[in-house]
Amino acid sequence: MLLRMSTLLLRTLREDPADAEVPSHRLLLRAGYVRRAAPGGYTWLPLGKLVLDRVTEIVRSEMAAIGDQEVHFPALLPAEPYRTSGRWTEYGDDIFTLADRKGAEHLLAPTHEEMAALLVKDLFTSYRDFPVTLFQIQTKFRDEARPRAGVLRGREFLMKDAYSFDLDEAGLQKAYDRHRNAYTKIFEKLGLDFTVVHAMSGAMGGSASEEFLAATPVGEDTFVGCTECDYAANTEAVVTRAPAAGDPAAHPVLEVHDTPETPTIASLVELANARALGDRTDWAAADTLKNVVLTVRRPGAETGELLVIGLPGDREVDLKRVGAAVHPATVAVFEDWAAHPELVRGYLGPQILAKHGIRYLVDPRVVTGTAWLTGANEPGRHAVDVVCGRDFTPDGTIEAAEVRPGDPCPGCATGELTMRRGIEVGHIFQLGRRFTDAFAVDVLGPEGKPVRPTMGCYGIGVSRAVAAVAEQHHDDRGLIWPAAVAPCDVHLVAAGKGPQLDAALDLGGRLSAAGLRVLVDDRTHVSAGVKFTDAELVGIPRAVVVGRRLAEGYVELRDRASGERVELPVEGLVERLL
Ligand code: ATP
Ligand code: MG
Ligand code: MG
Ligand code: MG
Predict the structure, then answer these.
(1) Does residue 480 have its Cβ closer than 6 Å to ligand 1?
(2) Residue with the nearest Cα to atom 7 of ligand 1?
(3) With contact defined as beta carbons under 8 Å apart, do 176 and 150 qualify?
(4) Are 41 and 154 in contact, with CB atoms under 8 Å apart?
(5) Strand partners, 137
(6) Which of 199, 371, 437, 488 is the S-S candidate for 519 at Cβ 3.0 to 4.6 Å?
(7) How many CB atoms lie within 10 A of CB 414?
């Protein structure tokens, strides 16, 4: 492959784009890998597409290596299966929905468990057909609350998703372990510094779940690692290791007084019920897996309160059932939150709540992900991370639920936890029978009785991984791609016109004939200095400068990562670079 800079669809930018706040986003834009096309939607330019394809191929070949079979589901799907599984409402505003010309409801798939389960039901009838694992690499759609950082969190993004089907738990465990190993290989090949952490299952349900987090300060996930053992967990998941439900010491009954200032649980529930069916102007209801978040404003009051109502163990959240299912100890009231208008604009985590001295009550069983709220004093939706707490104080208030470094490790109890930030690049789940139950996927078992397969699902953010690699491999001059994912193997720079340009093109032709991917900077209207700057920005691992010493038969080889430069004879260069 030989690309010529003079004709390549590439415009490098000298200045940082104003809307790009993280390094990978800035550099992928500046070096001409992606262009923003829509909110949360990016066009991959030729160099970007090459990197994306290389990452895709690494993922695909490791999936094939563990026997997963590639399929391709439609992205445009009818609503019905997602209603059957309950995820039509569970995903809530996160899914893009649309109607066809006959008015039938559809969605753009955020992930495909339903389709995988239905396909297996459609084709397989006997236990002899198992185990089987399907995977696809496909565009996914999610109406993210906060699309950010370019392809790191898009509303349209490329995901590899795999679905395993086994007849028993032991089979599922094997499939899960296989994917865990394959993911480790993939992220190693991509050159990522990553940690596998215990995770929460989020909107998927299910039990065992681990995330692959690429460490970077711009990551949205906080995770902890132990100083002594190999325990590592998403901080959300650490919180779930709070005292077990049913332990009376761990779950004091909340005291909520029946005063105008402090509504009773019953009155809150009544309010929730009434509002759930009413207009949505000054409150928001959101159904995540286990929680409903409402903001309410008492008549005449300037400020509002944020309520978190948890539905322990309830998978399908139906707002109309909130009143019936709510457990008294799972109500939390954030007091005075609306006195802090700045809070509702951004991340409203326990740290921020603690910083502002905002008191809140919450039950440790309320394990949650992201919910929604509408600020009483600001229209529009805002994401709020609701995190449960661990340490009830005697008066029923709770310390902020954050894990601190320095906390004892829940894994070994001797080490201490230290905290880091990361980007979720992969996620593996032991789903169980949630989806096979939903669609009654039964096959004939060995004893003639029907058996219901158990599922695992395994996702990799392929487009996000490109940004994660960029996040970990750059300096202030530009990108520094690991060789395995670089758009090209060699960047040839013709420092001058005439013989230098001819020699660069000749060398480029020979290198590409020898099987290397080559980018030749053959532009004649820019200075050598601009070409060097661009070469560093674009970040191909090796650059060969054809410059002044060509007359004596020498070129310069520059290593992007180390900055090392050596002069080499043109003679024998092709063999040397292979
Ligand atoms: P996040 O916590 O970042 O929102 P998620 O947990 O919602 O991700 P999963 O449902 O686990 O995502 O999807 C599998 C993988 O898809 C994730 O591990 C991540 O790498 C990728 N992914 C999810 N959402 C996005 C997005 N909006 N843009 C790019 N990649 C994404
Ligand atoms: Mg998400
Ligand atoms: Mg996640
Ligand atoms: Mg996830």
Answers:
(1) no
(2) 202
(3) no
(4) yes
(5) 160
(6) 488
(7) 11
The model's pLDDT over 543-577, given as tens digits with 9 standing for 90+, comes to 999 999 999 999 999 999 999 999 999 999 999 99
Centre of ligand 2 from the C-alpha of residue 85, in Å: 18
* pLDDT, tens only, 267-279: 443 443 333 333 3
Averaged over 185-205, what is the pLDDT? 77
Strands, E assignment, 167-314: 194-198, 209-215, 221-226, 232-234, 291-296, 305-310
In degrees, to the nearest 5, what angle opens at C-alpha 448 toward C-alphas 446 and 451?
A: 70
Tens of pLDDT along 139-177?
999 998 888 899 999 999 999 999 999 999 899 999 999
Structure tokens at 281: 């102007």
Say which range, 177-191, 280-294, 462-476, has the weakest mean pLDDT. Answer: 280-294
CA distance between the termini of the chain: 14
358 within ligand 1 shell (Cβ under 6 A): no
Q: Does residue 160 line the site of ligand 1, with CB under 6 A? A: no
Question: Which residues have a beta carbon within 5 Å of ligand 3, which is an ion?
Answer: 424
Nearest CA to ligand 1 atom 24: 153
Question: If we measure between CA atoms, which residue out of 385, 383, 341, 323 comes closest to residue 360?
Answer: 385
List % helix, strand, coil for the chain (3-state, nearest 5): 30, 30, 45
For 524, the token pair is 């004649």
Centre of ligand 3 to C-alpha 306, Å, is: 23
pTM for the predicted model, two decimal places: 0.74
Q: What is the mean pLDDT of the chain?
A: 75
- Relative to the CA of 221, which ligand 1 atom is closest? 2
- Number of DSSP helices (H) and strands (E) in the chain, helices first: 15, 29
Q: How far apart are the C-alpha atoms of 143 and 146, rounded to whole Å?
A: 9
Distance 312 CA to ligand 2 centre (A): 21
Return the number of other C-beta atoms located less than 10 Å from residue 364's C-beta: 24
pLDDT above 90 (res 386): no
Query: What pLDDT score was predicted for residue 236?
Result: 56
Tokens read off for 286: 């959101």
Q: What is the C-alpha to C-alpha distance for residues 123 and 91, in angstroms, rounded to an integer?
A: 28
Distance 94 CA to ligand 2 centre (A): 8
Give the ligand with the smallest distance to the CA of 159: 1
Check residue 534 and report its DSSP letter: H
pLDDT at 533 over 50: yes
* Residue 291, helix vs strand vs coil: strand
Ligand 2: distance of its center to the CA of 210 in Å? 15
